[in-house]
């Protein structure tokens, strides 16, 4: 899991580096284009495989029972996205071939954003956030959260790391213990989102 975490954490700089490297190779040695063209499909398959590795397949049944999640996904995919795609595609509406390409890219089922955002909505993460957002909750250690949440220590540590990386939590050293707390400026908003107020 550490390798996947590293790839996920550095994916934007890696994508940018790949774009720059591709542009430099294409400009410096245009004769290499046919060789790289052959690699497009295998590289896309590898990227899709890597994307699907981060899907928690053991939780698919749980997701299918989550009515709010499915309703949100349905509204997004079948109402909001088509309207946005229609508006964006007006710029190329005169060229049928280009329009088809734009529609395929923008309307074809793509779960990248679903994986990213549903990762933040993991039930274990929400449980930890709820505990950290409880009224009067100060900095809490991993040990305390492990005890009160019923989750394993590695799971708690993993989720706290992710929540800290997203900017929801602050790390606070209390003596020799590293603790976590909800960032003060987000406290009220987070309680509202978690429907605690």
TrEMBL record:
TM segment ranges: 12-33, 39-57, 69-92, 98-121
Residue span, HTH arsR-type domain: 105-197
GO cellular component, one term: plasma membrane
Magnesium is among the record's keywords: no
Cited PROSITE patterns: HTH_ARSR_2
Keyword terms, alphabetized: Membrane, Transmembrane, Transmembrane helix, Transport
GO molecular function term, any single one: antimonite transmembrane transporter activity
InterPro entries in the record: Arsenical-R_Acr3, ArsR-like_HTH, HTH_ArsR_DNA-bd_dom, Na+/solute_symporter_sf, WH-like_DNA-bd_sf, WH_DNA-bd_sf
Entries under PANTHER family matching the protein: ARSENICAL-RESISTANCE PROTEIN 3 (PTHR43057:SF1), ARSENITE EFFLUX TRANSPORTER (PTHR43057)
NCBIfam families: HTH_metalloreg
Protein name, entry field: Metalloregulator ArsR/SmtB family transcription factor
Source organism per UniProt: Corynebacterium glucuronolyticum
